[in-house]
Amino acid sequence: MVELLRVAWAIAAKDVLLEFRSRTAFVSALVFTALVLAIFNFARDPTAVSALDLAPGILWITFTFAAMLGLNRAFGLERENRALDGLLLSPASRTAIYLGKVLANLVFVGSVEAIALPLFALFFNVPVLPVLGPMVLVIALATLGFVAVGTLMSSMAVNTRLAELMLPVLLLPFLVPPVTSAVQITARLFAGRPFSEVGAWLRLLVGYDIIFVAACILFFESTIEE
Amino acid sequence: MSFLPAYIAGHHAGIPVALDPARALCAEAPLTAPAVGRAALEVRALERNFGHVRALRGVSFALGAGDSLAVFGPNGAGKTTLLRILAGLLRPQRGEVLLDGTPLARSDAAHRRRVGLIAHYSLLYDGLSAAENLAFYARLYGVPDRDAAVRRALEGVALADRADDLAGTFSRGMVQRLAIARALLHEPSIVLLDEPFSGLDQRAAATLRDLLMRLRGERRTMVLVTHNLDEGLELATHVAIQVAGRFAECAPVDGDLAAYRSRYAEATAARG
């Protein structure tokens, strides 16, 4: 177990360092986030639909698509010089490789979300601060779910010719449960409803994470080999 | 009484034989022997198809510790497929690979630890420095005393003074040397080389040749896949010609290189 975590950490640290040096995906994701929020903000008619009604959906659409830019890169950078072969040749367990990639993606997506959330509050003037604690919990749970599935799909798409196109096609159907849950919870939090009202959606989110993290760990080896 | 050398005759008869460490055993036909006693690397009747293309058709051979086999062949002969199967990156559809008599299991970390692959691609990260690349692989392989191992590896390929430079800024020759350092960092007993001289200038090729001769001196088992007859014959103790997925010829290097070149030309010409 210690060995597994040590290798996963090494892979995550390598990915984060590579992204820190190039900042390709991170800057793209931030620019994308700012543009989406700005466009939605200026495109909506405030007299027809209130910001509070639209905001939860926009927030999670922004998070989801921004995350895809990072997920695409997760295995994309292993294509360079066929570095993925180097990983697979090594004695590192496939579970460690998967967990390392998930960890690096969580850092990436979490960083984008940390910047996007204040921007969102600014553009839509929604009361994020009073519900920050529950929001962080919801964001963490939803992000874990779609990063876990997205990392697996990224490993499947990486060897296809149109990897960037394939990832959304493969991934989006699997994101319906966590994104729907997250939108529902966010809408209730912004509306000032008590946290107890979101119990069912929260359980769905937790259940999704448990099932899909376990399933992705199980299936990763068969998707990455050959 | 058979006129075949004992190590070949015994193997074809299905009798387990102890491999003469000075000689490799090659056979086109599937082998029936349950094990070759002292073979460091044994390949039995490997077959692999890609759709309708038969990339490998019953390739078999065995190498002892310190043997080096050069596999020549035209493009599309299945040489890289053979090497990828030996490295554990591809699964054969039939046949098996044995390391020290034990079948190669892809999930077995101990086996992967014994194999080093110098591929046509560097398997390095352009965005990491030479030292960072090696340190990363050292972590994956659990190399003890990582910093010292990385330093030694860089010194071994004359890149110690470029340790902190990004691999992406290196020339082709330097990348190839760094790739060799990466492949040998964990001191594998079996080294697989895929077109290692490809794209190298004369100086880089000479450096690489010296490195490979050193490996041969260290009694590591090597399988070298190349188009370059001169380089391959100089480094190998055994040579094989692979054509259309089969070993058309496989024999110890006997010194008559001109005859070998002629046979290579015949074998590849016969294929059309």
Largest interface: A-B, 27 and 30 residues
Give the total of beta strands of chain B.
11
How many beta-strand segments of chain A?
0
CATH fold call of chain B: Rossmann fold
Q: Helix and strand succession of chain A?
A: HHHHHHHH
Question: What proportion of the residues of chain A form beta strands (DSSP E)?
Answer: under 5%
Mean pLDDT of chain A: 88
As a whole number of angstroms, the C-alpha radius of gyration of chain B is 19 Å
| Biggest sheet: strand arrangement of chain B | 7-8-9-4-10-11
**Radius of gyration of chain A, rounded?**
18 Å
- How many H/I helical runs of chain A? 8
- Beta-sheet strand percentage of chain B? 15-25%
Your description of this structure?
The complex is a heterodimer of chains A (226) and B (272). Chain A is mainly α. Chain A has one domain (2-224). Helices cover 83% and strands 0% of the residues of chain A. Chain A has helices spanning 2-22, 24-43, 51-79, 83-89, 94-124, 132-157, 163-190, 199-224. In chain A, helix 3 runs antiparallel to helix 7 (163-190) and helix 6 packs antiparallel against helix 7 (163-190). The model of chain A has no long low-confidence stretch (mean pLDDT 88). With 272 residues, chain B is of the alpha/beta class. Chain B has a single domain (6-271), classed as P-loop containing nucleotide triphosphate hydrolases (Rossmann fold), CATH 3.40.50. In chain B, 35% of the residues lie in helices and 24% in strands. Chain B has 9 helices and 11 strands. Chain B has helices spanning 6-12, 79-87, 109-114, 130-141, 146-156, 172-184, 202-217, 229-235, 257-271; strands at residues 25-27, 41-50, 53-63, 68-72, 94-99, 102-103, 115-118, 190-194, 221-226, 238-243, 246-252. Chain B has a 6-stranded mixed β-sheet with strand order 7-8-9-4-10-11, sandwiched between helices. In chain B, a hairpin with a 2-residue loop joins strand 2 and strand 3 (53-63). In chain B, helix 4 (130-141) packs across helix 5 and helix 6 (172-184) runs parallel beside helix 7 (202-217). Chain B is globular, with a radius of gyration of 19 Å. Chain A binds chain B through residues 3, 6-7, 10-11, 14, 17-18, 21-22, 77, 80-83, 85-93, 221, 225-226, and chain B through 87-91, 106-107, 109-110, 112-113, 115, 117, 119, 121-128, 132, 136-137, 139-142, 182.
